[in-house]
């Protein structure tokens, strides 16, 4: 993407920095993240935002900014939290260091309803997360908002420089998005963010980089790799899409993925390695060992079927890139899934043979891109599914019988969710197996069988999750159908655990 008139976000290490980029894009403008020491690489921004950060400006090696370069842009600048404190120092003021942390909601009271606070309520909840506070102010600094105690929490300096102590990017700041938007309105010219423009540029970029070489990509049926494969197809490059059936997939999943790719006009090669996976897992009951076996075997099967790759495409997303950039202070992108962790990939990366066209996008933007590529909503709306598949939905050792039971229970539950219009409302749902036998009665006979656990959660990013209050009738019918149709199950449980402390999967 061309980098002029964009919103340059300088990352001082706050856990919310990514969110600032997202919010700016949500408001329809192109934003990009930079490390403060890379300020000279910014080019011609339309506006600059200095993020918050965990450090104190009073520390001798605290992150700094080249103020002369910042001023030379001649564009509006917003300092958030640490960013505001740094600007205050640059303008000749001071910051009071403190060990006492203010974390949580506070009341914002604008003292001026111009610029940032146009249309903002007289009292508005904002989210604070800081220890230090601004102290002495430059004589030309204007206090444009205070908190409930009359302490300045927002400043304006000459030359369109603004500072805010709170975090407008989090939803707990009720009018935060509007405040950010008001800031962006101060900019004369900003580059719009349209997924369509992005798509065009990505396709051109792919053609240019690939030329007439052949690109290989692994597909799982999940959103990222599907969008990636369709994008490569749109670019018209020579490609091979490889789908590994590890025997840990849901009922009829291989068929479904094949059908979906057929609908999208992308040819995939299916490698059936289910027997290999099941034999390697036989008798293994330790969750970490199971994962390791699956991960390593996946790498082997994938690379055995690839042969000599001229280029490899992977569905790395922006959060992965950012994570590695801030952790390692490098721009090298993180290698995403387990099959990417091999030395071979690093080798290809060194040779410039790894293509990561989605690396500037967030997850929801990938969905939007997918829609603009004509991918059907049912494919884009598939629930997340873990790499180790059903293996993490059955505590302990696995065998074909257990996997088949999970498949049946899961298909019944997912079918009911779709029938009741709940599939698209929940973030992820599945049925798993609890291989513990309990006593029951089936027909006239005593039964001694396992239990299945139903799980349905809503989540934004899988870091936290809430269980879903599904209609009783949906659960009742699911339970009846499972008990009537699935041999080996005499008990159906609904998992009402939040994450944390539970996780979404059982292993
Ligand atoms: P947990 O169980 O940690 O899951 O709450 C969070 C989300 O991640 C998925 N998940 C995985 N995905 N490889 C993956 O690709 C894994 O090993 C893995 N473990 C969990 C899970 O399905 C949920 O969406």
What does this molecule look like?
There is one protein chain. The chain has 507 residues and is α/β, with parallel strands linked by helices. The chain folds into 3 domains: 178 residues, Class I glutamine amidotransferase (GATase) domain (Rossmann fold), CATH 3.40.50.880; 186 residues, HUPs (Rossmann fold, 3-Layer(aba) Sandwich); 96 residues, GMP Synthetase, Chain A, domain 3 (2-Layer Sandwich), CATH 3.30.300.10. Helices cover 34% and strands 22% of the residues. The chain has 15 helices and 20 strands. It is globular and about 85 Å long. Bound molecules: xanthosine-5'-monophosphate. The site of xanthosine-5'-monophosphate (XMP) has 12 residues, from loops.
- Count of distinct structural domains: 3
Q: Main β-sheet, in a few words? A: 9 strands, mixed
Within CATH, the superfamily of the largest domain carries the name HUPs
Head-to-tail CA distance between termini: 40 Å
How many β-strand runs?
20
Mean pLDDT, rounded to whole units? 92
- The first-level CATH class of the largest domain is given as Alpha Beta
Strand content: 15-25%
Q: Report the C-alpha radius of gyration, rounded.
A: 26 Å
* Spatial shape: globular
The hetero compounds bound to this protein are: xanthosine-5'-monophosphate
Parts with pLDDT < 50 across at least 5 consecutive residues = 326-341
